[in-house]
Amino acid sequence: MAVEEEDLGDMPRVVGVLSALLERVTERNDAAAELELELALAGAPAPAPAPASAFRATTKPDISVRAYMSRIARFAGCSPSCYVVAYIYLDRLLRRRRAPSVDSYSVHRLLITAVLAAVKFMDDICYNNAYFAKVGGVSLQEMNYLEVDFLFAVGFDLNVSPEAFGHYCTVLQSEMLCLELERAPPAAPARMHCCLADQDDTPTSTSSTQHQLAA
User: How many CA atoms lie within 13 A of 202 on its CB side?
Assistant: First the structure.
């Protein structure tokens, strides 16, 4: 599905932050996979095959993570907190054994399914699976299967405590600061390097962070 890049400027900040974070993780894992392949072709021991996963497409989608995230944000109509919860669900999934790698083959399906699960858990009113399937560019049957697979993969651990929500808001706020520093002039301070679910020891109030991410 070829889609032109869409502007995230009118979206909640958390949408842009999450898309940037997932883009970086995807690029890192793509590069690692390419390096492993090059080493294998050069005679090095072949890496262990990736576990089979419903989230892994056979070909790379033609839409970037940024454009896909913008499409979800434009049509899903969910609250900004859903994106924080979707990020939490993704992190829980990736911390489990035999979790799928977040790369160009899997990131889109992981993202639409995590948002779907978060919307159903967080919002009183939401669109059904058929609607999300159209937004995500998959069939309804595939969307249903991905949802079930995702729920089992996270052990149906969908509850998010206020403390956990506040922590992940802080992580996303740190990512937002990284992006701002990257856009700063050369004389700006050195870049910060934030990774998925890094611990931020700087105390930040949950309500303040939520406001900044939703702005």
Answer: 10
H or E element: which one contains 13? helix 13-41
User: Distances in Å between the alpha carbon of 84 and those of 110, 165, 206, 211?
Assistant: 14, 7, 12, 12
- Cα torsion through 5, 75, 106, 181, rounded to 10: 50
AA identity, residue 78: C
Residue 63, token pair as written in the block: 């839409």
Count the domains in the chain.
1
Below-50 pLDDT ranges, the chain: 1-5, 188-212, 215
Q: % helix / strand / coil in the chain, to the nearest 5?
A: 60, 0, 40
What per-residue confidence (pLDDT) applies to 176?
82
CA-wise closest residue to 160 among 99, 90, 105, 212: 90
Query: Which domain range does residue 152 map to?
Result: 1-215
Write the CATH number for 131: 1.10.472.10
In a 10 Å sphere around its CB, with 0-12 CB exposed, 13-18 middle and 19+ buried, how is residue 95 labelled?
exposed
